[in-house]
């Protein structure tokens, strides 16, 4: 081989050697690897975002559902009336007054009439109100009443049949009102209190107290009586008639003029002070009593 042939052979082999490195670093392979990795990253990120979105939606739904149920329950509760309302419909007075074990306390609540009472009521305290009248309808359906107290009202009139059905009534207090006369009283009264009214003698019928065989306490002080009421029952223990306009009494007022042996031993106290009467002028009027009446004798 000549020198020329060797040089040509060398020149031909050089390009082949230089072209080999580019063939080892194919740019397409690098591009495809990079593209595949980025798409995988984007896919995984998108999947994670969607997963989180779905998770958030589920969490919101789980939170919302109980709220909707609770709201529905609240609506149901607001629509359904509570049980006490039924009781209050049956006993409306107990919303204004205090009802306790058969006793009704309606004191200082500014009522102007007797309120509807529970049928089992035994005691009514309606003191210091603005009641002006008592009627038969007020107690028609309350037969178990044993005590009524209307102290400090404005009562001017009481129908005669008001207490006719109260066969168990034992105590009746009408003190500090505007009464001019007395109604028919129930037969089993043990106490009757009508002090501080405007009652005159003509406002008390002759037989008002005659049949009250259980009456022990009678309070008619601070009225406008001109005489002691007639036919006072034998059962009386205390009689208060002080501060009226009583000017005279007779031998039959407390005793029996035709029976000198008669003794009225149950009476413990009679008060007549504050009346325009000199008790010392009527000595025979107290002959049947164990104690003299309280009042002026001179």
UniProtKB/TrEMBL annotation:
Keywords: Disulfide bond, Extracellular matrix, Glycoprotein, Growth factor, Leucine-rich repeat, Proteoglycan, Repeat, Secreted, Signal. PROSITE patterns: LRR. Residues 1-19 form the signal peptide. One of its GO terms (cellular component) is extracellular matrix. One of its GO terms (biological process) is bone development. Pfam families: LRR_8. Residues 70-89 have a biased composition (Basic and acidic residues). It is found in: Secreted, Extracellular space, Extracellular matrix. Residues 70-90 are annotated as: Disordered. GO terms for molecular function: growth factor activity. Its main location: secreted. Gene3D superfamilies: Ribonuclease Inhibitor. Belongs to the small leucine-rich proteoglycan (SLRP) family. SLRP class III subfamily. Induces bone formation in conjunction with TGF-beta-1 or TGF-beta-2. This is Mimecan. The gene is OGN.
């Amino acid at each position: 081989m000549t020198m020329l042939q060797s040089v040509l052979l060398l020149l031909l082999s050089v390009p082949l050697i230089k072209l080999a490195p580019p063939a080892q670093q194919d740019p397409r392979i690098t591009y495809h690897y990079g593209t595949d990795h980025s798409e995988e990253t984007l896919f995984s990120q998108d999947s994670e975002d969607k997963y989180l979105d779905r998770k958030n939606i589920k969490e919101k739904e789980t939170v919302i559902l109980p709220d909707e149920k609770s709201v529905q329950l609240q609506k149901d509760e607001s629509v359904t009336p509570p049980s006490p309302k039924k009781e209050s419909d049956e006993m409306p007075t107990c919303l204004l007054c205090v009802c306790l074990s058969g006793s009704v306390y309606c004191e200082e609540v500014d009522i102007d009439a007797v309120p509807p009472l529970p049928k089992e009521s035994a005691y009514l305290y309606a003191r210091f109100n603005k009641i002006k009248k008592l009627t038969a309808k007020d107690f028609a359906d309350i037969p178990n009443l044993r005590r009524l107290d209307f102290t400090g009202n404005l009562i001017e009139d009481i129908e005669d049949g008001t207490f006719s059905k109260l066969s168990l009534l034992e105590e009746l207090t009408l003190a500090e009102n505007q009464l001019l006369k007395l109604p028919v009283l129930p037969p089993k009264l043990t106490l009757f209190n009508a002090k501080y009214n405007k009652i005159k003698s003509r406002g008390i019928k002759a037989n008002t107290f005659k049949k009250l065989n259980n009456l022990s306490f009678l309070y008619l002080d601070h009225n406008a009586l001109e005489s002691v009421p007639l036919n006072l029952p034998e059962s009386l223990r205390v009689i208060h008639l002080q501060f009226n306009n009583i000017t005279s009494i007779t031998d039959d007022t407390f005793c029996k003029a035709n029976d000198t042996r008669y003794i009225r031993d149950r009476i413990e106290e009679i008060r007549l002070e504050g009346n325009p009467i000199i008790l010392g002028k009527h000595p025979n009027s107290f002959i049947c009593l164990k104690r003299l009446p309280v009042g002026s004798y001179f």
